[in-house]
Design brief:
Helix content is 74%, strand content 0%. It has 227 residues and is mainly α.
């Protein structure tokens, strides 16, 4: 059930966020896209959180693994479920985008929400800038997850700060990379877009995982020993 919950939660996050970006982005702008991702994560925290912990992001799972809150075998299952959920969601978004009459092709529309650097960065940011943005903004997300879900944190409220910080980092990151901070969210569209999106995908796997590792180190250093 944990893996099914991760698949479903990642599907909801990627489907809601990408649909907003691809279909409604011109109407709602970057703020609307950031809220779509953040509110989806908040909703899933209360929906699948009791089942799987609602990682729905390989970088979060990596941070949990390094913090010894999940076993390696479970982490592998989480990663597989998250990627499958994102691929399914991206395929449905592509199918919807293809139905637009007189607009861009479905692939072109989905490519507009894919993650990239250099010429494929919305603001034409360099590889180094994009790597740093993805790493350190992911760190903010994973640190928030680790803190909000700590057994000493107030129970029942974790989804609120986690959803809010995701909206914040996506709003900050959209001009740089289109805002990934989640390898599954990047893998899904890249598989359909192909070409440059697949060639640049490595950054959107490596940088968020680096951010997750950094977050685990920071949080384990800062938190007081359990009583």
């Amino acid at each position: 059930m944990k893996y099914g919950a991760e698949l479903f939660g990642t599907f909801v996050l990627v489907f809601a966020g990408l649909t907003t970006a691809v279909v409604a982005g011109n109407q709602v702008g970057n703020v609307g896209v950031a809220l779509a991702f953040g509110l989806s994560l908040l909703a899933m925290a209360f929906t699948v959180g009791p089942i799987s912990g609602c990682h729905i992001n390989p970088a979060v799972t990596f941070g949990m693994l390094l913090s010894k809150r999940i076993r390696a075998g479970e982490a592998l299952g989480y990663w597989a479920a998250q990627v499958v959920g994102a691929i399914i969601a991206s395929g449905i978004v592509l199918t919807i985008a293809k139905g637009a009459q007189g607009g861009a092709s479905g692939i072109a529309a989905l490519a507009g929400a894919a993650n990239g650097f250099n010429d494929h960065s919305p603001g034409h940011y360099t590889l180094v800038s994009c790597f740093l943005a993805e790493t350190f903004l992911t760190m903010l997300l994973v640190v928030t997850v680790l803190g909000a879900t700590d057994r000493r944190a107030p129970a029942g409220f974790a989804g609120i700060p986690i959803g809010l910080i995701l909206s914040v980092i996506i709003l900050a990151g959209i001009p740089v990379t289109n805002g990934s901070f989640n390898p599954a969210r990047s893998i899904g569209p890249a598989l359909y877009v192909g070409g440059w999106a697949l060639q640049q995908l490595w950054l959107f796997i490596a940088a968020p995982l680096a951010g997750g590792a950094l977050a685990a180190g920071v949080y384990m250093t800062l938190k007081e020993p359990a009583a």
